[in-house]
Amino acid sequence: MVSEMVIFSIITYSGDARSSSMEAITYAKNGDFDKARECIEEASKKLELAHKEQTKLIQAEAQGQKHDISLLLIHAQDHLMNAMTVRDLADEFINIYMKISNK
C-alpha cells in the first residue's frame, strides 16, 4: 500500500509550486522581474521536493513492492505534472514580459 503521507506530500509540494509559479507571472506582469525569478526558484525547489517523494514510490516499485493505484495517487501525479507545466510556462511568460518591457 502506498503511504498516504507520501501522496499528500506530492500534492502539497506541487500545489505550492504551482502557486509560486502563478505568483511569478503576476510579478512579471507588474515589472518586478527579480521577485518573479525568486518565485520561479521557489517553485523549482518545491517541485524538487515533490519529485523526491515520487522517486520513493518508483524505487519501492522497482524493488518489487507493488502498489495499489488509488484515485488519490493519480490525483497527486496530476498535480505534479500540472505544476511542472505551469512552472515552465511561467518562466516563458517572464521572458516575454521582459522583452516587452525593454521595447
TrEMBL record:
GO terms for molecular function: metal ion binding; transferase activity. Its cofactor is Mg(2+). Keywords: Magnesium, Metal-binding, Phosphotransferase system, Sugar transport, Transferase, Transport. The active site is at H75 (tele-phosphohistidine intermediate). The keyword Transferase applies. GO terms for biological process: phosphoenolpyruvate-dependent sugar phosphotransferase system. Binds 1 Mg(2+) ion per trimer. InterPro entries: PTS_IIA_lac/cel, PTS_IIA_lac/cel_sf. The modification Phosphohistidine is found at H75. Mg(2+) binds at D78. Transmembrane segments: none annotated. PANTHER family: PTS SYSTEM N,N'-DIACETYLCHITOBIOSE-SPECIFIC EIIA COMPONENT. This is PTS cellobiose transporter subunit IIA.
